[in-house]
Structures
1.
Amino acid sequence: MSAATASQAGGPAVVAEARTEALFLDFDGTLVEIAETPDGTAVPATLVALLGRLQVAFDGAVAIVTGRTVADIDGFLAPLKMVVAGVHGGALRLGADDAVTRLAEPIADNVFERVTRVVRAVPGVLVEHKGTSIAVHWRAVPTASAYLEAELRHALAEVQAEADLILTRGRRVFEIVPRRVSKGAAIAAIAELPAFHGRRPIMIGDDVSDESAFEAAEHLGGIALRVAGEHFTDEIADFRGPAQVRAWLAALVERTTP
Ligand SMILES: O=P(O)(O)OC[C@H]1O[C@H](O[C@H]2O[C@H](CO)[C@@H](O)[C@H](O)[C@H]2O)[C@H](O)[C@@H](O)[C@@H]1O
């Protein structure tokens, strides 16, 4: 029988059906615990095998929807290659052997330099250049967030004529992204792939940029499951954290794999 009740593993009492549903999974804060730095992320030994088994159980209808680059995700999950919407929907890799399609222009050098000038003024802040977006991490210096936000907004206003970028807030990070990309738009595109088409989407995420993905999943008749953290409180979240998400997925795959 290919139905699983999530509550058996803790987490939401959702019945997931591997033959008729598709999984869309955020990465940081959802599949893996938040770390002090982007490079410090630890991938649990069992996660790669778990995702591989889910791909089989769902006949390929499993995608990672992340703010990370596709290359980052490939590195974390090696040797597994998945369908990935990277850089908050700015890059798509629609099949394991496909090339990455960029849906936005790379951030121009002058914008990156302008942002770097802001960041240099605050020791401890990290900047991640991801091609079509820039992440400014202030986890190590939380008191600097208001200053950074004001300065980054000012910098973006200066370059607005040449680049249509917006500033979004993530988990102790400001992300500079093209206005017209989103995780939600990426889910709509992936849902058209043969492996995903006609399946009910289940999107699991923990952060602001997952909101558009939740909306897209619900628009397609699916459901949104929230993970507790800096964005969702325990009261409104469906999962206490990534460990519970992994346990829920593991229970699901156990019950759906003959
Ligand atoms: O969409 P996601 O998969 O959740 O990616 C969102 C961002 O995740 C990373 O930053 C976050 O995780 C870091 C490591 O745990 C943490 O140090 C940081 O404070 C978090 O904001 C990643 O570095 C970003 O590029 C992603 O956009």
2.
Amino acid sequence: MAYKKYLNKNFAIFCGPGNNGGDGLAIARLLSLSGHAVQVFLLNSASKRSSDFDINYKCLKEVASVIIDLKEISLPSLAADTIIIDAIFGTGLNRSLDGFSKQLVEYINRLNNKVVAIDMPSGLLTDLSSKGLTAIKANNTLTFQCFKAAFLLPENEEYFGNVHILDINLHPSYLNSVETTFELVDQQFISSIIKLRKAFSHKGNFGHALIIAGSYGKMGAAVLSTKACLQSGAGLVTAHVPAKGVEIMQISAPEAMCRIDTQSEIISNIDYDLKPYTSIGIGPGIGKEKMTTSFLYQLLKDYQKPMVIDADALNILSENPDWLSLLPPGSILTPHPKEYARLFGNDMNDLEKINTALQKAHDLKIIIILKGHHTFIATPDGKGYFNTTGNAGMAKGGSGDVLTGIITGILAQGYKPNEAAILGVYMHGAAGDNAAAKYGMISMTATDLIEALKTPDLLTK
Ligand SMILES: NC(=O)C1=CN([C@@H]2O[C@H](COP(=O)(O)OP(=O)(O)OC[C@H]3O[C@@H](n4cnc5c(N)ncnc54)[C@H](OP(=O)(O)O)[C@@H]3O)[C@@H](O)[C@H]2O)[C@@H](O)CC1
Ligand SMILES: Nc1ncnc2c1ncn2[C@@H]1O[C@H](COP(=O)(O)OP(=O)(O)O)[C@@H](O)[C@H]1O
Ligand SMILES: [K+]
């Protein structure tokens, strides 16, 4: 286990007056009993102490430990190899730190000692944004029972370090009774939505996806999304591309059929029946030429089934926000942070972004995928899902095009839009993790993501 390296060290345990402090006192007792040198520092111990704190304080007193009441003037000096345990505040913190507690946290952050936070780094708020606040910068956080949403937000990255979830045996009926807006998408969750391919099935059972993508100089985006779509289980895939892009597409993805635009370099028009297609993905590499923009408007007006909207299709939407109301219900938007800002506004902290996505998903009856580390999926029914797969090796051009192809391919097979979004994001990240394991995060490319989709246990490990 990662924290085995902390055995046989000296510990300085900082405890607040609540239950988090109580946890710190219990840790102090256990470490003392196992022969470690432990110093305990109490903060505000004269104020309202929780009963957990009192019980653990009494137990600790029976074990030989140094317990020091911290006063505002005396911040302790610690040996460089002492491990600091932060049990000052946990989930009960309901406002930003000030006064001595803020000073103490700033002091700990200035030290070079390793810090282990208990449940939450002190100062981090559970349900509110912590942007710009003072909080412990931990190397490791040992959190109880489940991930806290605060650990999934980019703006909190510098605080929690490596997060370890400790099972404290909370009763399943209690856990089930806790209402939560957010779900974590892990392998177990995915296994509840994945459909097995029946032995007697044929290609007609897995739908026909249409990818509308590419322009002169950006055929790569079209190829990446089409190839990813082919590897997401769809029965048939057609790519609608500008005339000049047909050869590129046919050579790169011979399994896909092509529809050829009347324009040579851009997408401008669809003059065939869209009924045979069971899903449409539009946007990668299409640019924002006038004809392409008008075409998107027409498509939004005419087409009634859910679509996957990405890249330039999103940028066109952000320049014509009235068109958002034309999106067919169940459509899936896949913005990266910049595209999201263009669509729904800048200057939001991470929680505001998430809440706005949930609100817009509800109002427009669509799914919004906020891409990033722990991609967030906002659904029309008010629930939000954080993905657990993926890595920084995916932070490269083309990764998003692959995601569009995957989700379009899954949607084509008859999955509900919510499921297609969740499953697609998970698969994409899982492929990213496989690619990173094979090629490393630095050198892996979007093409390697597609290659890595071809892993038998992609969705079961
Ligand atoms: N199932 C569970 O939940 C389990 C929970 N467990 C543990 O309990 C922890 C939660 O404990 P908790 O509720 O006692 O709150 P905690 O984080 O110790 O802090 C509360 C104290 O902080 C104070 N305070 C608040 N803001 C402040 C400020 N800015 N500056 C100064 N003070 C401030 C607040 O004072 P007040 O707001 O009342 O003035 C109160 O005194 C949780 O993280 C985990 O470790 C596990 O042991 C078992 C399972
Ligand atoms: N640090 C990261 N951790 C996990 N996934 C990431 C990370 N960085 C990027 N990704 C994923 O890679 C994809 C990048 O998409 P995007 O920026 O649209 O790429 P492009 O437009 O170049 O195709 C997203 O799905 C995103 O979630
Ligand atoms: K803490």
